[in-house]
């Protein structure tokens, strides 16, 4: 083997190793972040209402490039305390929810089109909690909850309410803040 061949082989191996380290670092970086979205929303674990995180009245926000025509609120959840019930009243403005794990991203999304009689009720739970809820169900009384199985016990929910006109901004913010995220008492008693 000539020196040039050895040099090219060593350079190629170095580039492959560097690319591998780079890819692993990019994928692991979010799990080491201290000031991630879940960390910023941890205080909402003890509150019942979603916290407004969009630029209220043009104020500061930690969102990157927030949409001025959308009111954004969020709340964190920890399923080790039990399933979490998310409720919202729907109106004329578009309303959407996205459910995120603490580290892996979005695992479910839904809009106000899933509402029944102007109310949207969702229950986030682990697979074990879902099995327990199914076992405790009464066969004669069907359950109407929209059940969402989370891949991790901790995560957060982002609520977006459209405000197509600046005059509707306050109404959209009120609708976003009115979303409740509470530990579901009914499912706790059933388990």
Number of domains: 2
- The ordered H/E elements are HHEEEEEEHEEHEH
Q: What form results from the Cα inertia axes?
A: extended
Rg: 22 Å
Distance between the termini: 70 Å
Unreliable runs, pLDDT <50, ≥5 residues? 187-191
What is the number of E strands? Answer: 9
- In spatial order, strands of the major sheet run 1-2-8-4-5
Instruction: Profile the largest sheet.
Output: 5 strands, antiparallel
The CATH topology annotation of the largest domain reads as: Immunoglobulin-like
**Class by alpha and beta content:** alpha+beta
List the total number of helices.
5
Query: Helix share of residues?
Result: 25-40%
- The CATH class of the largest domain turns out to be Mainly Beta
Q: Provide the CATH architecture of the largest domain.
A: Sandwich
How would you state the average pLDDT, rounded?
Answer: 81
